[in-house]
Design a protein that fits this description.
Structural class: alpha+beta
């Protein structure tokens, strides 16, 4: 099966099949505990497709993006466009890992709200390489600093390993120093194909406001000869 067809086939899998093949946990819902302000708090992770998100779940996710990142978008060259972001969040092949309190969430198949955090990802191609791309990861303020983000990224990477893609990738605003440090601690570094600063005709160097980072998953179907050719072309 040609590589492009392989990813198309994986993305077309029903959620139940995708979960059985790639979800890193035996149970449909994965529960875990974190240390809360006063005691242990129990959380649940659930996997969704973008099409299966309920309206309440989708709006919770959008609220998290708006509240945690709209300022960074507004300060960027592209700006903040709520309609464009909502459309992107409904891309067909996106899948969501939703985080919520165990005691408040509903059985599988029912709408679960509030969503206290989420990560969205897609199996795709970047510069001729099979990757799992983290589109968004956002946590409500009361969830941060408890290892939840690391756990979500661990789920993403395990899905990528089971899907046998070459690396995990993401885009982060350079001004978001805390996020950059977080990814660096997890082993991410600037990707070889991340756009470089541009020198304009007047000699001024234009810095981009974002960087693409990646982490090798050491399991993808690799063609080393083609990879070497890509590096030579990039150089």
């Amino acid at each position: 099966m040609p590589p492009a067809d392989r990813l198309d086939t994986l993305n077309a899998l029903p959620l139940s099949t995708f979960r059985a093949k790639f979800w890193p946990h035996d149970n449909i819902d994965f529960c875990f505990k974190t240390l809360g302000p006063t005691n242990d708090e129990s959380w649940r992770l659930q996997l969704r497709t973008s099409e299966e998100l309920s309206h309440a779940e989708f709006m919770d996710c959008f609220r998290l993006v708006r509240d945690t990142s709209s300022a960074d978008y507004k300060a960027s060259a592209d700006g903040w466009h709520p309609g464009k972001k909502r459309k992107e969040m409904r891309l067909r092949d996106l899948r969501y890992i939703l985080l919520g309190r165990s005691e408040l969430w509903c059985p599988e198949g029912e709408s679960c709200s509030p969503v206290d955090g989420f990560l969205s990802f897609m199996l795709t191609w970047e510069d001729g390489v099979e990757v799992i791309y983290c589109y968004e990861i956002h946590l409500d303020e009361h969830v941060r600093g408890r290892g939840v983000g690391k756990r979500l990224m661990g789920c993403l990477e395990e899905v990528g390993r089971k899907a046998e893609v070459e690396k995990a990738m993401l885009t982060v605003f350079k001004k978001n120093k805390a996020a950059v440090r977080f990814y660096e601690r997890l082993g991410y570094e600037e990707d070889e194909f991340s756009p470089k600063p541009k020198r304009l005709r007047n000699g001024v160097v234009k810095e981009l406001d974002y960087v693409i980072m990646s982490k090798s998953l050491n399991c993808g179907v690799k063609d080393h000869e083609e990879k070497g050719q890509r590096k030579r072309k990039a150089g």
